[in-house]
Amino acid sequence: MLPHQLELLSPARDADIGIEAINHGADAVYIGGPAFGARVNAANSVQDIARLVQHAHRYHARIFVTQNTILRDDELEPVRKQIWELYDAGVDAVIIQDMGLLEVDLPPIQLHASTQADIRTPEKARFLQDAGFSQIVLARELDLEQIAAIRAATRPETILEYFVHGALCVAYSGQCYISHASTGRSANRGDCSQACRLPWQVTDSQNRIVAHDKHVLSMKDNDQSANLAALVDAGVRSFKIEGRYKDMGYVKNITAHYRKLLDELLEQRPELALGSSGRTRFSFAPDPRQNFNRGSTDYFTHGRQQDIGAFDSPKNPGQPIGYVLQVNSNSVDLMTDDHATELHNGDGLCYFDLHNNLLGLQINRAESLGKPGQWRVFPKDPVAGFKDLRRDTVVNRNRDMEWVRSLERPSAERRIGLWLRLEDTAEGVQLVLNDADGFTATARLACDKAPARDATKGEQALRDNLGKLGTTIYEVEHPDIATAQPWFIPASQVNALRRQAVEALDSARLKGWKRPQRATPVEPPAPYPEDTLTYLANVFNHKARDFYAKHGVQVIAAAYESHEEENEVPLMITKHCVRYSLSLCPKQAKGVKGVQGQVRAEPLTITHGDQTYTLKFDCKPCEMHVMGKLQPHIKRRGVVPAGERELVEVPVEFYRTASR
Fold it and tell me: How distant, in Å, are the alpha carbons of 121, 524, 617 from that of 201?
């Protein structure tokens, strides 16, 4: 990828979803490999990934495989072998966070630094570039000024990647240990228990309740639709959609949405270029509101905002469509806000009860009442069970079955422009194809050249038969019949000539595809920005320790998963501030008469069941630390591979401190 190209990077839970992401305009797709991909339930075989690679490379799109968990010593060799298998399958890059992998024998495959590597500063980004990473996934919390500073500190060929859509982890990626401390399931090893989506009770230092059963660590979903131009100006070139657990409909819709926005931006910026080949047309109007979302936020792109949390519910509230007219014994009558709105069997509706809890209602049958906007819906469950459902209750729709069905069908067409020229040869004719990327192919046909009886109809017949490219990835931009005169050539021979030429062009494109090259680390090894690393560096194997020692680090602590941190430590570091979101920040009180001096920078406590953590606030960098300890029953057992939940002893040895 070149510095002037823009890359739309889509997620794939499996190869079929990845293929549809390419069809809907993705320039690249990231997908989990057989193991070690930071999503326990999103693994794929090398064979399936090879199938995805073959499809993507037809459009000169790229496939990245996630290998971004932290690794035990005994896992380094299996991962090394797996990366070689992926390289042999044609994969373009692997995304990693464990620096131990840079100390083993890897193929010459491009390396991307995962967001799990916690890349927030120009110094960290420049170091990773100098260590051999070609693409760097920035922290989601960065604002435009911080992104621009990283761009200024790195080489133009180092691609900056930024999440533009999807679910948000409340913690800095790679800096959350609550899941492991409480359940033994490590987020750094792809098995997060998502404590951030739980309801918490918040109390102050005097045990007064500040918030009751609020999802104070649950963020709204990321949506940077309005910020793409500003992100380009700041230096972002790869625009990443979150969602390796998401379904086909989500990937189709969100990929199409950003494809359209980036295409509009490219039309306005002639100095920029597509990141792959072909133009995409859709049979639907992309709409991010139709997919699961917790409300939208652009997070910290323009600085700190107060309304970033989905505190009432981590579920999908959908979009308001109307209100309740009447609750019947086995049905509910509704009035839609827009009389053009239609309800369907299987639609999902929801509403908030009097305690602001989100409750769902699935339609078993929907009937129009014959008056504008009025519908009678028969829920799947008994009406009597719907708490606080009454007249004038606002109703949202969070699943539109007509929309769902529209995306279950073929919904996009991606084609590469083709210039076609039919010419005379001594033995007959030849067909020359030139595509939009400059690839050329020629096919020849030996035939008798008899003039067509009707020159106009004969020429049109040749154009029609040569232009039948419906099952290919091409579309004719300009057909040129450059023979001495329109010849009569049987349709079967013209079709065979066209197929031969297209096959030759396909072959030329695949041969012409150049796999991205791995960057060469600078020599001597670049010094790491710090000389001491705590557990926050996630060093979990001796190769990673060797890597940091080689780069000048003097003291290297073991990862939290090694169970060497016995005291209370930050289990989550986040830019999100509960005090700020609850209007309790001392900075918010400045200048407010009668308030200044009464709001103090004191800890808060959050509790859910038997889990209790202290919230401490580091106001200089404006960060929140969730403090806690490793549960004793977790400390007694070793660290097992993600997905293997049985309590087994796995000894872990590590040096508390290590020098060069």
Answer: 34, 52, 18
